[in-house]
Amino acid sequence: MDITPRQLEIIESAGKILTSSGVSGLTIKNLAKEMQFSESAIYRHFKSKEEIILAMLEYLALTIDERLQNAIRATDEPDAKFTTMFQSQFAFFENHRYFVVAVFSDGLLKESQSINEAILKLLGIIVKNLFPILLEGQQKGVFSNTVPFEDLMYILMGTFRLQMFRWRLEDFQFNINETGNKMIQSVLTLIKNK
Amino acid sequence: MDITPRQLEIIESAGKILTSSGVSGLTIKNLAKEMQFSESAIYRHFKSKEEIILAMLEYLALTIDERLQNAIRATDEPDAKFTTMFQSQFAFFENHRYFVVAVFSDGLLKESQSINEAILKLLGIIVKNLFPILLEGQQKGVFSNTVPFEDLMYILMGTFRLQMFRWRLEDFQFNINETGNKMIQSVLTLIKNK
DNA sequence: ATTAAGTAAGTGAATATTCACACACAAAGA
DNA sequence: TCTTTGTGTGTGAATATTCACTTACTTAAT
Q1: What's the CA–C1' distance between A23 and D24, in Å?
Q2: Is A187 touching B (CB cutoff 8 A)?
Q3: Distance between CA atoms of residues B172 and B166, nearest Å
Q4: Residue B169 included in any domain
Q5: Rounded CA gap, A6 and A117, in Å?
Q6: Contacts of residue A144 in chain B, CB cutoff 8 Å?
């Protein structure tokens, strides 16, 4: 299932609307207005509203996964990988604020089973990329072994998500690259063996 | 602005609906059905749907604050206070699952300015109660000074929120008291001075 | 000549809210 | 002890608006 350029435009418009008006603002009418064409034209490119959201989540999953893999592959030691991974994440959302709401909206679009699954899949991609880093780090003794492996992961992901949440709540006023990476360094300090 | 028993019933019904059907399910019609009376009867007790949500958030803020204060006052050392506080939180939401969606829905109900403020206020209550514990802990040397004070707070709140999020995503299948407290102990292990 | 991509104008269903009205009960005046 | 009046809480029907989506038609490019 390839995505056409026009579909990508629509997906980006959807993200834009989500950011500015929340879920309740994401209507076909608003989407058409943002795209500067009629409501019915939307249906030339997507079968339904649900498919638009699904395409958005899938597109996000794909690009995030690719980017993370590349970023991680380019570095060496666990703690460097760790830093790189989150730097890459913050930088991405800095450049694609549109999607912050979509990704961190906590099952906001709960009404549909397949949307719920797509959100879970997106969460799984972070796990998939973070997992081997933490594992390697603990095995090499770079990261603390005093707490279980999964707990480290949840602490990290929770911290990351909260930063994104705050950033959005405060209308992207602060520098997420700076603030976010500082936070991640603090976590790194805590989980590193001294 | 005191809350009548009938209003509290409606608030609880609203929470119930939020949990089972998400935001999109919280309609006056569903609310009336849950209350077993007509839609118009709702308006005998609340001026609008927005006021119902606001009342719910305010009620939550009040009860959470009271409970946390009592729980914390009853204990002594920073790390014990710390544990007690989160135990109390997990236990509360175990007994009031209804409200998990409302509190952790991340600006789900973003459409209204006053609702947004109410959610921020709720967040502030956790901060208000956690703040002095961490401060005292760092001053007494119980908690690590290697990372800034606010960072500790964000790590904690992020971890807590993520647990609640996972719990809801997995339909309350796991024991949040057990899992949550275990998580919090892991964080405690990391931030404690050895 | 076929196809892709647009439009105008509609559809029924759902939405929050309001309306006039009804019933039970309590206080107060006769 | 009736009767009046007010109040709290309910009802069913109707309101205007918004929703996702459909149909029939046009236009432009290949």
Answers
A1: 32
A2: yes
A3: 8
A4: yes
A5: 25
A6: 190
**pLDDT digit string (tens) for chain A, length 194 residues:** 578 989 999 999 999 998 888 888 899 999 999 999 999 999 999 999 999 999 999 999 999 999 999 999 999 899 999 999 999 999 999 999 988 887 776 554 556 778 888 888 988 999 999 999 999 999 999 999 999 989 999 999 999 999 998 898 888 999 999 999 999 999 999 998 86
pLDDT at A81: 94
Q: How far apart are CA B60 and CA B64, in angstroms?
A: 6
DSSP string, A109-122: TTT-HHHHHHHHHH
Residue A118 lies in a domain: yes
Average pLDDT over residues B102-130: 79
* Cross-chain CB nearest to A158 (options B111, B116, B162): B162
Asked if A189 is an interface residue toward chain B (Cβ–Cβ < 8 A), one would say: yes
Percent of chain B scoring above 90 in pLDDT: 64
Using the structure, give the distance in angstroms from the CA atom of B152 to the C1' atom of C3, rounded to a whole number.
61
**CB proximity A113–strand C (7 Å threshold):** no
pLDDT band for B110, please (50, 70, 90 cuts). low
In angstroms, the CA A92 to CA A63 distance is 10
CA dihedral A89, A100, A55, A65 (to 10 degrees): 10
DSSP class of residue B171 equals T
Domain count, chain B: 1
- Report the pLDDT value the prediction gives residue A112, as an integer from 0 to 100: 74
- A23 contacts B110? CB cut-off 8 A: yes
* Residue range of the domain that includes B127: 58-191
Q: Which residue of A has its CA nearest to B123?
A: A166
Give the CA-to-C1' distance from B105 to D3 in angstroms.
56
Of B106, B146, B155, the CB nearest to A159: B155
| Nearest residue to C15 via alpha carbon and C1' | B27
Q: Tell me which residue of B7, B126, B115 sits closest to B57, measured CA to CA.
A: B115
Question: Does the residue A121 lie in any domain?
Answer: yes
Residue A155 · residue B152 · CB < 8 Å:
no
Work out the mean pLDDT of chain B and round it to a whole number. Answer: 90
Q: Is B146 touching A (CB cutoff 8 A)?
A: yes
On whether residue A42 sits in a domain, the answer given is no
CATH of residue A94's domain is 1.10.357.10
